[in-house]
Batch of 4 targets.
Target 1
Amino acid sequence: MIIKGGIVYDPANGIYGEEMDLFIDQGRMAEQAKGEEIDAHGLLVMPGGVDAHAHIAGKKVNTGRIMRPDDSRIGTEPRTAVCRPSTGYTVPNCYAMGYRYARMGYTTVFEAATPILESRHTHEELEEIPIIDKGALTLFGSNWQVMECVRDKDLSKLAAYVAWGLRAARGYGVKIVNPGGGEAWGFGGNVKGINDTVPGFDVTPAEIISGLAKANEMLHLPHSIHLHFNNLGKPGNYTTAIETLDLLKDIKPSRMRQIVHVAHMQFSAYGGTSWRDFESKAPVIADYFNANNHATMDMGQLLFGSATTMTADAPLEYGNARLTHNKWSNHDIELEESSGVVPMVYFRKMLVNAVQWAIGLELALLVNDPWKILMTTDHPNGSPFVNYPEVITLLMSKPKRDAEMATLHEQVPKRTTLAGIERELDWTDITIMTRAAPARILGLQDKGHLGPGADGDVTVYNLRPEELDTSQDHALVKKALANALYTIKGGVVVSKEGQILATPPGRTFWVDAAVPQADADRLMLDLEDKFAKYYSIQLSNYAVQDAYLPHAKVIRAGLPVEPLSEVA
Amino acid sequence: MRTITITPLREFRISVEAENISPDKFAPLNIEQIKSRAIWQGNRQKTLSDLFAVEGDDAPATPEEMTIKLVGDLSSVKRIAEGMTAGVVEVQGSVGMHAGNNMKGGLLSITGDADDWLAREMRGGKVVVMGDAGNYVGAGYRGEKCGMRGGEIEVKGSAGVYLGEHLCGGSIRIEGDVGDFAGAANQGGTIFIGGKTYLPGAEMSKGTITVKGEAKVLPSFQKMEIVQIDGLAFQKYAGDLVDNGKGELLVGVGSP
Amino acid sequence: MSETTLIKDAVCSFCGCLCDDINVEVEGGKVKRVRHACRLGSSKIMGHGRIENPMIRKDGVLVACSFQEAYDRAAEILLKANKPLMYGWASTSCEAGKKGVLLAEEVGAVLDSTATVCHGPSVIGIEEKGLPGATLGQVKNRADTIVFWGCNPAEAHPRHSLRYSSNASGRFTPQGREGRKIIVVDVRETRTTKNADKFVRITPGSDYEVISALRMLVAGKGDIVPGEVGGVSKTDLADLAATLKAAKFGAVFFGLGITHSRGRYKNIDNALSLVAELNQHSKFVIMPMRGHYNVGGIGQVLAWSSGYPMSVDFTRGMPYFNPGETAACDLLARGDTDAALIIAADAVSNFPRATAKMLANIPVVQIDPYENPTTLLSDVVIPCAIAGVEVEGTAYRMDGLALRLRKMVDCEFPSDEEILMGILESVHKQRLLKANEGA
């Protein structure tokens, strides 16, 4: 395939809006190729979108569907010759997930959090999602084996467990959510800060985070730890964010990347002492990210309207439900985690929601380096992913932000600095925040760029970057981003002008990390004991079997170190 | 006034979905166009004239000017008058489920019985049933907090269970007996029941339910004073207190 | 020479407990002995007389035929129907369920599971209130207070108490049964009440009011609660409320006794709120005691495929969900279906007689390893391999945990999944033929 004459943005390879032809050969970017010609003259071309943090598959997503027939009945699209039926808005069915991401020009999406015990379910759903490549991050932060290793300061056994857990879960990376809190919630409690002791386990969240970060680096995992801070969603929690980030400053990453990726930073950039004096601390957070290079984050942008909150931060969800008198699902997972699901609606005239909306944007606009901050809405917590074009146009257009701000609660200017920010992001920034940076942060070598050998995932948008004023014509930009002119996945046109043309299955990335046999053996003694005494299933039935990953893409890591390689 | 009369050509064994039969849908069309409107029977798409005889005035009009008469046994025909905003739909016979779904205005009258989910999620207008109504009269959709938000429903006969579930506004009047759990999870609106019911107002937070006949009352309702309405005595209750509800339940005292 | 193989840690495919510690001895290609399973599970795994070959009814008599003939006739029946019902699914794998959804979409059918006669009301309750739950291991390791409401696990889920609940011991519950308070709420005494510390007998049909009274007492609003509710004295109810509030970790398990008594889904709705409110005082979870081993699984498959876990109407190309209208018993009771495919369930035995009689009026395709009352009404009968004994696959436990079923022995019959694919292929072929004829 040849994509002719596009205005190409490939920041990872130093290309910032150059007119050039692109070649795809046997599903990969190449120097030359023959075949189908796509006319992209003058049009915006970037690598396929990479979403590093969304809740797209697994038990909590399905719980969201089951408890929300009111959501499933929105957004229904009938079966066609190519597509299965679509349903849902904040909790779409699997087919809608794939089609809607593809229409927007996204080709890779990672599920943000799955407990090992329930990973089989996650993979069943991931397999049902058409088109996109995917992976799942595995939860470790409230896990008994992890906490015991941390308590005993046994780093090599911890690393052995992380490797074992990723293999059992066919997971891609280490996810940590409100560490220790998930265990405290097992009896209805929570942890109040990173130095609080987790009841029954004699460890603190700070120790869990540092321990897992070190183990992550011992294993040379492609991604860093991916962290949802303690105290998320609470006024004044920005101090927890800074404290936690400082913890990790001096740990050396094993690869050319961050030591920690912070999930949905918006929810952890809060000032004030209560909802009454609630205010944004985005400037403080942004300053920290500007002054330090060991961390990255994603926005977690909130948009007005319907959402479904779902997270392993179960105590937070219980709080949400009580505050809003909403239906509430909770699911605690033996020895491993907790989670909750609560439908939400965010209102312009509600001061807290309006400030939350502003915070996400402030973060993205105040952090100087776009490689440090990804554009996400923590789908479906902040807003469904189909609203990404809304977020992008808010970042690119000050007039649009001003128009929006005029409709909000009048106190908003007193609680955030957004009104005074002039900066408007450009296509280079956006390509970095939605393609190049998520790929680099996740450690996906062949994604997010268009250099030879990269996966042949390319998006052509019906926009002329050289003629367009993205500040004034934001409505046009939003419309064009919602339905890519061409979405190309692995050299196949999967979507054209919003119509799905093909639904090839995507691949599921997971990491197989090697550890010294001695550590693995020591670990097994612990695990055999846990399965004998505490788990409600047998060890032999625990791990995800091959049958669940018919389209696996394995990345090797661990010790001894091999160069990052792939085995189909 | 533009009148269209629709008669089923035969008995329908598999239910028919007729959301295209409404004043709003018919108003701008002539008879030939109306006849070729889509209608569904299970997984088969048909045209109106496949299943019904259609007669009447040919010239297009506004919804307000429309009267649609449905004559015969329409008890297997669902979604008649769905979403109507104005005009009149008269069913001379019994009607299937979801009649008057999402109605916003106009009049839907039924001489016979109405099946379940009559006027689900109604917003405005009026529904009158001379016979009995089924379950979920004026109710909402699964999982939604608010169902019916406005309009009036009147049933001369009895109604089934879950009457007005999730009612947020408007009024429902049933002259006869009503099944279990009338007015469940209500956040507003008024319900009048001429006969008896069982455990009305479960989890209601606002609104008024008046039951002229007997009613088993939940243990989470607080007995207040006796009030007189049109010469009849009613025991007033406040509830449902499980959720600090501020609803009002009135239950007839003694036989009417 | 006949070899004996020992299969360890097989998953039992009978009830929602999905016990996965079953040891099976296989000799000469047959299951010889089953260890650790309860008698229900053992019986299932040991197997018994089954349907020997596919059959089609000709002149009122079921006559043997080939699998292909059976697929073709089944496809013909489904294609001809305006509103076919595809019912059952609870005793086969998710893999079969996925093919079922595909077939239902393809022919425009209504797909429903046995939840419709079991925990369907629980699903509706969950749609109102959510489900504050946990995995069974949480109960094993933490619960000091367990309530069984309207269920009788001693009979219906025999190993539940030892593996997961009353008699299980775990990290924070080393004393097992000794360290627990077991409370049974039911309309009569059962075998389960014999292992309980407290039995609360309620008047049949009064679950809803009793739960409302409990909610009031838990919230400290007991003043207005009358002296007796549902046949239980206020003192006893107050006692129960206090016990629940004093729990360190409480679990409520419930079954058909409450889902199918007066109030139905409102009962569950109310129970879910009670448990949510108890979380303000102590830690509490609630869980439905799923009957069939994979009714949970088909619910998961349907939900991720269509957005809804049961009673999905695909006739108009878009999934539509409205139990009371789209559930199997609704369709049958109203005569609003003109063909049925019954798989992995015994519809005739599941439904009330009046509803089951409807099946006699329409063509029925049965896919099942065993003869049962549904066979008598069937026009096409297709024997299948048994998931969990002869075919691998996925099943979901009552707490939503997915496990992989083993294949223990070979079987000459195709799996449910293969049969559904065979019918789907025949549907495509027949459609193509018809289109070409028209051309």
Target 2
Amino acid sequence: MINLLNISKDYGENHAVKSIDLIIETGKTTVLIGPSGCGKSTILRIIIGLITPERGEVHIEGDTLTSDNLILLRRKMGYVIQEGGLFPNLTAQGNVSLMASYLGWDKNRIQKRISELCDLTKFPKDALTRYPIQISGGQRQRLSLMRALMLDPDILLLDEPLGALDPLIRSELQNDLKEIFSTLGKTVVMVTHDIGEAAFFGDKVVLIKEGRIIQEGKIYDLAKKPSDPFVTTFINAQRSHLASIGDKSS
Amino acid sequence: MNLLKVLPILFIIICTSCSSSHDSQKEIKIGSKKFTESVIIGDIISQLATSQGADVEYRKELGGTRVLWNGLLGGDIDIYPEYTGTVTQEILSDKNITNQRELKEELAKYKIGISQPLGFNNTYALGMKRENADKLGIKTISDLKEHPELKFGFTNEFMNRGDGWPSLRSAYSLPQQNVQGLDHDLAYRGLDSGHIDVIDLYSTDAEISYYNLKVLDDDEKHFEDYFAVLLYRKDLENRNPETLSTILKLEQNIPEQKMVEMNASVKIDGISEKTVASNYLKETHKIETNPAEENFFGRLYRNTLQHLFLVAISLSTAIIVSIPLGIFAYQNKKVGHLVLGVVGIIQTLPSLALLVFMIPFFGIGAVPAIVALFLYSLLPIVRNTYSGLKDIPREIRESGEALGLTPFARLRLIELPLASRSIVSGIKTSAVINVGTATLGALIGAGGYGQPILTGIRLDNMGLILEGAIPAAVLALLVQGLFDLSERVFVPLGLRLEEEKH
């Protein structure tokens, strides 16, 4: 379980996150959603310790995140970002095995784990010797997910992982990701601005606006029992225009 | 990077180069200035000392009085030819020395001895082309007052010394404004080609008759006497008395006409200083010396070794120091700017000034040259290391952090490999600058490709100039090629593929 207690983060005059309390349940997928600049990525970066909040505490599986245990706690979390954040100087294999080699895993164990992950993420094994620049965007995201899963972390943090992909690949990856989440049963926190994606993945959806949580719950609750007019506005803003074409033709 | 492997090798090179010990009893270190007369006398001293069985180290063509004087005080030189006027007017100009006895006493305070005059007075004089002087009716320096349009070209030393241009101008109230500083040997050529009308010259210069010059009469008696003498370290009297007394046989034994003749043999007839010195010793002192003349390949080999030595030591130490400095600057932004500022300021110092600046601290020879080259090589590497690290995209840097790598592991596994291209290109820039700047090392006795360039300028010998300039250029290209190749080793394949794709 991840527990955020009264977290605030300022960038100068700009209050990016304002006194947020949030419980992220173990084994569930929690989606943080909201308009650009609402602070949803900042919250994710606070959880993995890339940003230190001005106030508040982060508890990860019972441990309070501090600068002393930061490095150890990070190894219990996998982090995937929009463009993958892959190391261009390393091959696909090098990217995935970096931490394991650093921690002194033997070669067989590394190979076995990479083989499992290739099967899980449907990453082609013959592409393992390629460099990030030599593989497609979709494969890069699969690779980034493999890297995040290498040490078998309890928690997966994904910051708009599918944001830079074209719709067909995106849809394919959405299906694969959902399958992976349900197979592994990990605690997942995903940031997206797409309400459809939130509905597809989220056991719980957290809607954020200007650094505050507006409403959290199942997507059904947000749609049917909005706690604030903004919830409805946000959901309706992303309604498909194709749906309205359908309305007129019927 | 394989710095850790290179480090011990480098250490061994430095140690062996420093520990090349000589038998200090029989060792004598001789210096000379970078004009022909001084080089000839230096050769005469060298051959005399060698004939007496001494172990001679001759550092010729050093760049200026201060370099030699400091070398003498610091013990890098035991003896060198000097002129009385230079001592009283320049080295000890603040002491108001009026006679030989005071001169000797003042020098003794520095533990420096002075010989009797060698027999000729090479005073400063002003000269112009005879036909030009006759046409304008100029016979004396005072006559120049009537011709403010004349262009003066003086040696840089003459422009600044106590009895040089500033005091000459006020002594004679000279009106000329168009005065430029240049090398003595170039001045003769400027005069000959008509770009300059009046130059300073030395009264024993061979060129006076060769170019048919008029020496203007010093009617106000402004210039001091410049009797040639030998300055030597007093400890030589105890350390190596036989060699010193052999050398001092030169006292009163080089008459002015003989010196002019020897200068002409070298500068006009193209005979080497060694041969001229040997002939003098045979005729005047009945001493056979038969100095070995180095051939072209011998010189090239020696200059190459010296040059490579300067470049290799200074560049490799600069690499070892600069990369950590660049990393430090990147990790500590505030102090980092200070570091970048300081190495930037060093880079703006003229290289010659930096070389001479090192002499009080490190004496003369290879050490001050290496230190100066080292300082000069810092900026490109420090700056490129810093910017290479700084320019790593945020998401990649954060991915490394998010994995749970320690800061040192991130630096080693991700950040330095990503900055490698920038670092290698900084090293390449430093190396090329270093190879070029190292040619100036000859001015402070470090040898290298600068030596034939200096000699070539002095003797107006284009062949000799090219003998230094071409290998220096080739070496710069080779070094550049070497670092281009080294990118294949140090820059990860993934980054090179990325560059090809963009």
Target 3
Amino acid sequence: MRFVDEFRDPEVIGRTAEEIRRLADPGRHYRIMEVCGGHTHAIYRFGLKDVLPPNLELVHGPGCPVCVLPMGRIDDGLSMAENPEVIFAAFGDMMRVPGTKGSPLEYKARGMDVRIVYSPADALKLAENNPDRQVMFFAIGFETTAPSTALTLMRAKALGLRNFSVFCNHVTIIPAIRAILDSPDTRIDAFIGPGHVSTIIGCRPYEWIAKDEGKPIVISGFEPLDLLQSIVMLLHQLKQGEAKVENQYKRVVPWEGNRSALGAMAEVFALRPYFEWRGLGFISQSALRLRETFAQWDAEQRFSVPGVRVTDPKAAQCGEVLKGVLKPAQCKLFGGECTPEHPVGALMVSSEGSCAAHYNYEHRKNGVASGLG
Amino acid sequence: MCLAIPGKIIELFPESHRTALVDVSGVRRRVDLGLLEEDKPVAGDWVLIHVGFALSKISEEDALDQMRILRLLGEDKAAMEEVKGYGLGEEPEGGKQKSETGRKRTT
């Protein structure tokens, strides 16, 4: 395990890892999915695999917003950038994500007005400062990010701002977990629940996973000790034959979530009947669109977007990796045609994508011994 | 995308749809408090910030832990770049110029 000296309570970490080895039944193979891309990054960065028993497998989930966005949506967003009237604004994470005719950064290099913003509020400010241009904000993210877009749209409406719009690609985590549980080729024993998404939605929305599907789920923090403690809690449940929702990240996640944020989301967004996820296909009621009351600020209504479905490059196996059927290195393009420097699929772009994490922490450092056993 | 950055509230600006001046490791920017209407923070409180909005109140101890975890994840620089990039949130004195430069650098 890397960076051991810098961790909080390194001794406790050692004891917790020991507890995991004690609890894990050697005759059983465990598949635990961490849903959140932030957890995936932390697991690789800290080399947590090194302290887990070999029969406990961590499967990387769909919680990386950039990774699950199908290429067609990126093309739709970029089609608006081709309009000379438009300023295309997006988070930095989006800039290197490939569309059919290149990434936002490549569009920028071709002279289109593409800007990085760090907050949806900054995109709004851009519209206020450029009254003769149309500012289109390419919104992505799970429930962590969606409330900020919602508040920004409420402000745009209050200001009566006519040159601002949002291309809404916000997705919701629960239907994605349902799709994974429904998929016949993925067998998951338990879930590590997302940390910051749960700050907003709380713990209740996960109850069906325990009650109806009989799978334990523990909402976890991002420190190595948090993740290891969450695994201990899951193994305890599995050992007792229990399935419940537990909150390991109580210091940040309230059971009821953030009601102001949920209220803002409910005012601005409605569920789309279905939405395509890269790798998982079409999932019903899994994404948000702007309500009719916000139609004036809906980029999909203001501009005509092609709305063409684009399949991933044939050889890339992003879908299988996203579902946890293949490990990143099992994809034919991994490390050859597809690298963080020249990504073919989105999983190689974001630091939260399992391919980028695997490449940066396992592939590049292959052969470098890690610290604690 | 999951990046949540801890900051300490220095001053509240209730007049402009509830924003606050927040200090993140010495960098001061204006952050939106609109998502904490039910549990309003006061000056001196610590909050977790995501894309320019405070998501939740946290303890000082957890705030310091969160900063450490960002450093361990190698995301502290990205976090500070994000905070510096908040164009809405310039420091009242002379910050505007700074944020304009920041925006040029990153566009």
Target 4
Amino acid sequence: MDLGPHAAFIIASYAAVAVVLLGLVAWLVFDGARQQRLLDDLNARGTRRRSARGPGGAQR
Amino acid sequence: MQTQSFTQRYANPTRFMALSGALLPWIAALAAAVLAYGLYRGFTAPPDYQQGQTILIMYIHVPAAWIGMATYALIAFSSFGLLVFRHPLADVSAKAAAPIGAAFTLLALVTGSLWGKPMWGTYWVWDARLTSVLILFFLYLGLIALRSSLEDETLAAKLTAVLALVGVVILPFIKISVEGLDIPSLGISIPAWNTLHQPSSVLRSDGPKIHISQLVPLLVCAVGFTILFVALHIKAMRNEILRRRVKVLRLAEVDRARAGEAAVAAE
């Protein structure tokens, strides 16, 4: 496909969109995986929310 | 009471996580499909009689600018929901949307500059439209910086919400900067600023001024970018809810450790 005399500007524009959006997606995916891993670790250690504990701090 | 019970029932974080987890893959796939179709239509459309193939930049520049502005409106709406209704998801929504809105606004600025150079002969001019969009980008950075600079999350949420509501004045300014505003019945007449940026070709009271062969791919790309934004926003909100759950559990763990130490000391 012939992009004409201004091909470099068109390619640079699409490259910028690809880099920024793929970077955003990657950040969100890795951040989500990290938060889920941290949450799973805490749950595995038996940590419960304060509101989920019984009287005197015993965990339910 | 009806509204409160509805939001408590259908828009609480637990229900949001369950529903969004099921929908997110489908929304992401739909965004990819619609964007691919829109770009296919754009790349197979005839070149513009004046701009040639640089019209291809329009299919990413215009949707990015629309999403950049719409995201700020969403943040302002969510901030209002936080300050007035104290809705549990409102702050999550506002916080999650800021980096995404900043990214789309940055893309509007970058692709606009790359489109401006071959068409206007310059990457940048300090006119009202370009400068007001740059201010919008700085507003996004301000929201992100303000929130991250305060350790107290409740205070950070409130201050960020106030800044978001104050900053919403930039949105009509961006529109008026090129179009002007004329409402004779209210006695309002604001002239358009001198600018290189063209007036709106799509959202006009007298209908779109763009050829159908370019209008269709533009609208399809705009829908695709909007669905992509929805997918990104849902994912960012899910991450934020997980982050808050981790924080609550860590605090609970610290409490538990302190209680254990106190019990040992008492013995």
